[in-house]
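User: Hello, can you help with two protein structures?

Assistant: Certainly.
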Amino acid sequence: MNKFALSVENLTKIYSNNKTKKQNKALNELSFGVKQGEVFGLLGPNGAGKTTFLNILAGTVVKTGGKVNVWGFDLDKNPRQVRASIGIVPQEVNLDAFFSPQQLLELQAGLYGVTKKDRITNLILKIVSLEEKANAYSRNLSGGMKRRLLIAKAMVHQPPILILDEPTAGVDVELRNNLWENVKKLNKEGVTIILTTHYLIEAQEMCDRIAILDKGNLVALDTTERLLQRIKTKKINFKVKNLDLGKKYSMQDINIKINSKNSISVTYEKNLLNFGEIINFLKQNNIEIEDIFTEDGDLEDVFVQLTKH
């Protein structure tokens, strides 16, 4: 049975406006857990409450109610131990341009109270593939290297949980792939990863489980595979030979669209029909199939379905 690296119970945050006397519930009794060693996705549209949640963990926002437990430490009773158990990689690149990676990691370790004999600066630089740039100015690093240096900074106190807040925002495809290779490597070494991202295809490929927030509420929490199974509709494109454009084709529980004399698309609900019935229908109508292209739904379809965004 998996132990929880992080768990929240009825977590609530209410912002009050003294002028209008209105209250905004940024988090509404959230309850979920993140298992040790998993890659956990935290998704939601802008204003869903993701940033508020991360700021509560970081200690920069005080929760209104509920319980937060991180690596066995209660946020109310042991706030310092909670912050020592997590490393947060921010979305913004906030590096001192005139410090080298080695100097930045040494400084960060000092801020966390890590003694010199317990520091693993060189090992961390090797993990994020920056050992050759250890003494270079940070301003001379490429965009991908700066992102990896942010991960390195979050690791100086060897936290068991690493939180990545939009880590690939504005990063090109090559750098993004490189970054994910580093994250996968850390996860294999036992680090629990919590990821927020607007690139839903990344979450689909990287995460074991995903929580989707909307307006402070938890609207979904499941494995990536089960979330994808929620998609009811399936679309299939057929490449065919000389379709009769004057003929009308109709079949119960299926939407048929004629694209051209060589192309036809069908959309249907997976639980109402099976693929073989569609093939038989086309054969009975003397439609000769040359090729088939399926368009299975992805996490974006689930996201839109649940949040209406």
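That covers the first. Now for the second protein you mentioned:
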Amino acid sequence: MIWYSAWAFILLFFLLLAAVLQFVKRKKRYGALPLSTLSIVQGLQTSLRARLKYLPDVLKYLGLILVVIALARPQKTDEKVNRNVEGIDIMIALDISHSMLIEDMKPENRLESAKKTIREFVEKRVSDRIGMVVFSGESYTRVPLTLDYALLKQNLKAVETSTNIKMGTAIGVALGNAVSRLNESTAESRVVILLTDGENNTGLIDPQTALKIAKGYGVRIYTIGVGRDGQAQLPIYSTDMFGRKVKRYQPIHSKVNEPLLTQLARETGGKFYRATNTQSLAGVFTDIDNLEKTKIEESRYTRYTEMFEKYLRWGVLLYFLGFILQFTVLRRGL
């Protein structure tokens, strides 16, 4: 509730002043009757009429208070908000080749760091459709474009490197797959976030062809090179004769193709990032989150309902009731 003419409450001060002056004047008007002993009046009982002698004044002042409240114009507001949301369609292409198991990023390795950061990125989005393709030597769609973020995060959690698909790093195939998922999108902004730690070394679609397809569809590409270049230790898991899981390390050379990833981003209006630790990877996704903002327009409509009528009605009723009682059943002599 709001008060459109709150200044009217100033009148309550004058009502209070009038009540005080009336009380003082009435006290002066009626004198005291001196008695030699109280025994004369001890047996007398106060009549109901005498007990209610101030009721007319109370009713009139209550009525005037309600009239003042009515003058302040109490209003009930009903606000309606229309949100026009212009979402973004985002496909995430995540490298799941074995080199993503290199343990140079927290909390565990490159893949787990990427999964954690992607999950946090998804949680920041509002009404964008997001999908995910995974790739190594081949690529497949793990989650199509969806607004079901719970489903997306559930599938993201289950992602791991696999021996069921061809080994290698097929950047062109992954990019082509992600762009094809955006082919029929009607969103004004369509984005691919390509995250890899290696160089393109296999696949039926080369990165340059995938780049042309992306440019043709107006898809913007953000590329992220994960991990440090150079010699690294790749964990290899095996089972010993007692059925226990044993981890050993195999030397591997890891290198991100920065010129290729830079070209893919630059020619589509995106941006290339290099993330060598979990903190910098989180900063990359924060930057992308800021660059690719969902457009939300709000239209607010406020309806005001006047509520002064009931206060005015009851105020007038109480005032005239007090007025009538004062000159009828509760009338007092001059």
